[in-house]
Amino acid sequence: MTLRIAQFANILLFALVTGVFWGTWFSLSRSIAAITPETFLEIGHIMIRNLGGPMSVLLPAALASSVVVLILLLRRRRNAAFSLAVAGLLLMVAALTVTLAVNVPIDVQINQWTVKTLPADWMAIRDRWEFFHAIRTFASVGALAFAVASVLRETPSSHRLAAAS
To answer: Who's near 135: CB < 8 A, 6+ residues apart?
Structure first.
């Protein structure tokens, strides 16, 4: 039962992180080049303010929940499920690394900009942010997929068959 609770929490937290990244990519990033500088700054400042704090808690919580799942799987000698969960954790660590190494420093820059102080290369900076945002988005999608696959692999065949009928 403890493993199931940990897996549920892990998938929920991975889904929340992935949802934030995916929602931003799907709704904003695909058309970001068409947004005026004024709108870009307004949206950017709002999103940085709204997401910075919650994501600084949510992403580490997702990683911590993954470590708990790994420990529980290792103790139960569930090697295949463990390997899938490790892959999920590594992809989420990759998303965090991209976030901290690229996206957050750019967010700090953007947060200081006004329409009057936009640097001449602001579009190149915006495009760099977008490129790395896409990388972290799809890394988190992969992480979530591996976390779910781990749970499905962990579920005994008889339980899967009973649930399907």
So the answer is: 98
pLDDT tens string for the chain (165 positions)?
799 999 999 999 999 999 999 998 888 887 888 899 999 999 999 999 999 999 999 999 999 999 999 999 999 888 899 999 999 999 999 999 999 999 999 999 999 999 999 999 999 999 999 999 999 999 999 999 999 999 998 766 545 555 555
Question: What is the domain range of residue 63?
Answer: 2-160
> How far apart are the C-alpha atoms of 51 and 130, rounded to whole Å?
16
Largest CA distance in the chain: 65
Helix (H) or strand (E) segment spanning residue 32: none
Rounded Cα distance, 148 and 165, in Å: 20
Please, which residues have CB within 8 angstroms of residue 155's CB and are 6 or more apart in sequence?
Answer: none
Task: Tell whether pTM > 0.85.
Answer: yes
165 belongs to a structural domain: no
Structural contact between residues 55 and 17, judged by C-beta atoms closer than 8 angstroms: yes
Predicted pLDDT at 158? 43
**Residue 14 resides in a domain:** yes
